[in-house]
Amino acid sequence: MKVLVTFAVDRKFQKIGNEILGKDNIIWYPDLEPAEILLVRDNNFPYSEEVKFIQTITAGVDHINFSRIKKSTVVASNAGAYSVSVAEHALALLLSAAKSIVKKDLEIKNGIFNPEETILLNGKTILIIGYGGIGSKFARLAKSFNMKVIAIGRSYRDDYADEFYDLDKLKDLVKLADFILISVPLNRQTYGMIDRNVLELSKKRAIWVNVARPEILKRDDLISFLKQRSDVVYSTDVWWDEPNVKVPIMDNLIITPHTAGGRSGEVMENAYREAFLNVKRFMEGDKPKNIVNIDEVIWIDRGSLGV
Fold first, then answer.
1. Beta strand residue intervals within the chain, DSSP E
2. Which end of the chain is more exposed for a tag (fewer CB within 10 A), N or C?
3. pLDDT 10s digits, 104-130
4. Which domain holds residue 269?
């Protein structure tokens, strides 16, 4: 079977693909010859009835329109490939909020010396919504701060979370958490699931961290809530309408430009390796990892592409 890579790839990453799959088995962009397997990044890929397997280089798939893909085609995401980088970024967002890093840096640079109390992570409770690769990696980091970890996840279990629950317990668990990490995939079930009714359950001085997708929350509910509850901080790597974001200026809102997945070569090297290894599994007749349930997918027409 031939593999068509549908977007431009640096030579150093092409070398990884050639080593794993064999250079004679890969068609590199800009060549667009027919192939039974596609490696895709966004919607700009040729699709035909002959395609049997599609592998995304991205962890999320909500930016890809699957309506033109027949259901018999197997689609796999690259979930887990960026987990370490995203978990580290999530910790940075949490610490920035708890220690008022952004606010105090700006004040100091404007000649304002105003020390204020900060929040300890030690001994606090964090709720992780979405206990997959990112959530479990973050839980390990949380344990180094002696935090209690409550996890919401479908099936994955390990010893880093103290308690596991299903998504239907979300409201009850938000009431208990000092910090909340959103690391769940965006799909039909999670789209807009965090609204005013959920946000208003936040404890005093709670910190929300989002390294997933903005659409998991309802934008207007979030903004009005943050204006009402200045004690609660929302620290996020994602926002609506990227890259043309329109963000309200509030002390309790911290945003980075969708960089949690990392832009460095070492991160992308792992991402390409994982993607090509998954393609190899399919080619050899084994079940690929991270098969997407197309019935659950929701499509967001994005102007900017993250992981």
1. 3-5, 26-28, 37-40, 53-56, 74-76, 125-129, 148-152, 163-165, 179-182, 207-210, 233-236, 253-255
2. N
3. 999 999 999 999 999 999 999 999 999
4. 3-81+263-296
